[in-house]
Amino acid sequence: MRYVSLGSGSKGNATLLEHQGRSLLIDCGFSRKTLLQRLELARADAGQLEAVLVTHEHGDHAKGALALCEALDIPLYCSQGTAIKMDWTEHARWRSLTGGDLTRVAGMSVAAVTVPHDAREPLQFVVEAAGLRVGVLSDLGSLTPHVIAAYQGCHGLQLEANHDPEMLRKGPYPPGLQARVAGPYGHLSNAQCAELIRRIDWPGVQYLTAGHISEKNNHPDLVGQALALAFGSTSRPVHLLAQDQVADWCEF
Ligand SMILES: [Zn+2]
Ligand SMILES: [Zn+2]
Predict the structure, then answer these.
(1) How far apart are alpha carbons 144 and 230 in whole angstroms?
(2) 77 CA from centroid of ligand 2 (Å)
(3) Which ligand is located closest to the Cα atom of residue 122?
(4) Spacing, Cα 94 to ligand 1 middle (Å)
(5) How far is the CA of 117 from the centre of ligand 1 (A)?
(6) Domain of 210: which CATH number?
(7) Environment of ion ligand 2 (residues, CB < 5 A)
(8) How many domains does the chain have?
(9) Of 90, 79, 34, 87, which is closest to residue 56 (Cα–Cα)?
(10) Average pLDDT per run of 10 along the chain, which is 252 residues long?
(11) Structural domain of residue 45, as residue ranges?
(12) Cβ atoms within 10 Å of 130's Cβ, excluding its own
C-alpha cells in the first residue's frame, strides 16, 4: 500500500491511495486537467483509479471531482449532504456515504468519519489494506472524542495544521473570516494538530504529513516546530505538504 498528496491547501486538495495496482482519490479540489497532470507528475496511472471520495462541498475539495469521474468513467462517493450542496444527488455516478460506514473501494476498506466543519455533512476517511491503516484528515474545527478514536493506530497519517493563531490574528483576514477559521467548525491550528498527535496511540506509525497549511496565516517553520515536539518520541520526520507540489510517496 502507498499514498501521495497531489497538493494540499486552500486552493486545492487531493490524495491518492494505491494498493495492488488499484487506487482511489480522496478529494479533487483541482480541475480535471490539473489533477491528471499531477497524477503524471506522481507517475501514477489514471487508468488504475477506481473512485473519487469527496470529503465535503468546499471548492478546494470538490471542484473537479465530477468532471474527473465522468472522464474516467468511475464512481464518486460522498455524503448525501455534500451531494445536495453539489447538486449531485440525481447523478448516476454518485454513491452515498454516511459517517460510520465501512465501504470497500478499489480493494481497500474505507471508514467514513464524521467531523466538525462548516459544511453540510462533512466526512473524513481512514483507509485500510493489508493490515495497514492510513488516515487522511483535514478541515475540522475542533478535536472530538469521535475523531480521536477513529484515527487511532494509523501507520500513516496526513492531517491538517492550518494556522498559527497569532499570525491569523495579525494577518489579512477580516474579523469574521478569522473567527470562522479559528472557530469550532473551521480549521485546526498547529497546536490543535499537535494535541491530536499526542492523543493518538500509534505504535506502528511510519509516516506523518501535515497539510492544508495556510499560506497567509502560518509558516512551515511553526508547523514543523509544533509537530516535531508532539511527534518527537518516534524520532521520525514530519513532512509538510505544499499547495503546488506533488509530495513524495509514502510507501509501506
Ligand atoms: Zn479545505
Ligand atoms: Zn472546508
Answers:
(1) 18
(2) 17
(3) 2
(4) 21
(5) 10
(6) 3.60.15.10
(7) 58, 139
(8) 1
(9) 79
(10) 98 98 98 98 98 98 98 98 98 98 98 98 98 97 97 96 97 96 97 94 88 97 89 75 97 95
(11) 2-251
(12) 11
